[in-house]
Structures are given as C-alpha cells and as structure tokens.
Design a protein that fits this description.
membrane, alpha/beta, globular, 10 strands, Spore Coat Polysaccharide Biosynthesis Protein SpsA, Chain A, about 40% helix, 8 helices, about 15% strand, 2 domains, three-stranded mixed sheet, seven-stranded mixed sheet
C-alpha cells in the first residue's frame, strides 16, 4: 500500500533561499511505495508567490507543490498553518525543513527507513551549517556530537524532522505549536510535549540537511541578540508549563549568577585586551553572552517578547 509523505516549509521574504530549498527537495530519492508532495506556507501580510510566480516555480518541479498563506506574523502561526495545510493532503508522514536549508538526496529515505526500523514516530537529523562569512573567533558554533541512529531523544528542533501524522491528526494526539511562543522555543516545546505523550523519538545520524548562514547572522550584535532571545524564550516556556513561581525559583538565582560572573568576565576581558587581544576578546564576549543569558531569563520571567525574528537574514 502506497503511503503519502508531505514536506512542509515555512518561509518569509526569502524567495531565493526558498527556491534553492525546493530545488533540493525536488531531487530527493523517493522511497519505495511512497508519494511525496510539498506545501509552502508564506508568513507575510502579502504573499510573494502568487499567480505567475507560483506557476513558474511549480512548472520547474516534478514534485507536486502547493502554496498557502498565513498573514499572522509569527513562527508558531506559520508552523501551525503548515501542519493544517499538510493535513489537507491526508499524509501518513509529515517532514519539516527550513527555507534556508537544502536537503541531501537521501534525506527522506534515511529518516523514513530509521522510523520504520526503530518503530519511531519522530526522526530528527543533523544540520551542516554553511557560513557565508566565518563567525568571530570568540563564538562557539553549535556542533552536535555524532550519535548512533536510533538513539532516543526527548526534544528536537523543526529544521530536520520527519513525524507521523498521528501526532497532529484530530483522531490522533491533535498537537499544535503553542502560539504564545512567538519569539522562540516553540519547536522544542512542541516535541517535548510529543515525547511526554509517549511518542518514540529518535536521532538519525546520517540524514543531513545543509543550512546557509548569511553574513548578517554572525555579526556581533546579531549573535548576542540570539543568545538573549534563546534565554528569554527558554524562561518563558517554563513559565507557561510550570507556572511563574516555579520558574522564578529556578531562573532568578541562575540569572543573578550569570549576570554577576558575566559582568566580572567582561571587565577583566576589557582590561586585558590591550595586552592579549584574542584572549581578552574571548573573555570579554564570554562575559557579554552570560549577561545576555541572565537578562534574557529575567525578561522571559516577565513574559516580555523578544524581537529577534523581526529581522530577516538572507534573501
């Protein structure tokens, strides 16, 4: 019996990146007894891919492509629209990939095979980051250590995912992204709840996608803003799940420590920079990152939104 697989992509004001993403998806190896289609959700007040533009993209692909529009600005709104759009095509499986990524030809084949072999409902794979410009020397790139395929995971991002449609179907778990998390962590929160509901989630070590990192995303201000956003959304997520009191008991002491040692490291780094530039800068920015995390946690406790995703990197 043939099974249906829908790949969902959310996008906003990055037509060139989206076209590269779709070109790569069109080159996927289609697993036996499987049909693949793609849904794209534009998260913008006015969609770009309409009329002739949409028709031209569709004409250039052999894979069925469907465009949808979500005018409410915010990642969880777009992700939920992507899930709803995917469900319209009665899929057995739904894959999620970002518009700034390109899948390797065997991406879906690897994820689907792993799910079938390990009896899993969610598979998450690695992202190989391609930098337009190297990040600063003091920045620690997020490198995931290799893990055997089939390793159980308890959370996941949405940048490389295959999941059973049962998780979101009305006659299944009926899960959705929390639309209060408009400034980050909505994907981690979603898959934590998937895990809590008993779905088996696994890592697939050789199902790669590549992510393009524009130069604008590795400027000092942008990197520090990302740290602040992640800390803000992380704390706010705990407020939503465990209540403000429990979140405060956890994050206030943590924030105070981060800000105290961050301030100390920043001052020391600043003082030694004239004598040992690289070492001084590393300590200085380590301190700033700690300050961003500490202040971000406090911001999240107060439920104040962050504007990191208001800025769009790439084209």
């Amino acid at each position: 019996m043939t099974q249906k697989l829908v790949i969902a992509v959310c996008t906003a004001q990055r037509p060139k990146m989206l076209e590269a993403c779709l070109d790569a998806l069109d080159q996927l190896i289609v697993p036996a007894e499987t049909t693949i289609s793609i849904v794209v959700v534009e998260n913008d007040p006015e969609p770009f891919f309409t009329g002739d533009r949409a028709a031209k993209i569709r004409a250039g692909l052999k894979t069925a492509l469907h465009f949808y529009h979500e005018q409410r600005k915010g990642i969880p709104f777009a992700r939920n629209a992507a899930l709803e759009s995917a469900l319209e095509h009665s899929p057995d499986w739904i894959a999620l990939i970002d518009d700034d990524e390109r899948a390797e030809p065997d991406w879906i084949e690897k994820l689907l095979t792993a799910c079938e072999e390990h009896n899993a409902e969610v598979a998450n794979g690695p992202v190989r980051r391609i930098y337009e410009q190297p990040p600063p020397h003091w920045w620690k790139s997020q490198l995931l250590k290799p893990r055997p395929t089939g390793t159980i995971i308890t959370e996941a991002p949405t940048n490389n995912i295959l999941m059973s449609s049962r998780l979101i179907a009305d006659d299944g778990l009926g899960l959705r992204f929390d639309e209060r998390l408009t400034f980050g962590s909505e994907d981690i929160d979603f898959f934590r709840r998937v895990h809590a509901r008993g779905a088996k989630m696994i890592w697939v070590d050789d199902a790669f996608v590549e992510e393009d990192i524009p130069a604008s995303r590795v400027t000092t201000n942008r990197l520090l803003s990302r740290m602040h956003m992640a800390a803000t959304s992380g704390a706010f997520n705990i407020v939503l799940r465990e209540g403000r009191l429990r979140a405060a008991l956890h994050f206030i002491p943590k924030s105070v420590r981060r800000m105290f040692f961050g301030f100390l490291a920043t001052v020391i780094g600043f003082l030694i920079k004239p004598f040992a530039r690289k070492r001084g800068e590393k300590l200085y920015y380590y301190g700033l990152i700690r300050l961003m995390k500490g202040s971000g946690n406090l911001r999240g406790l107060m439920g104040r939104a962050h504007n990191y995703y208001d800025v769009i990197d790439g084209h």
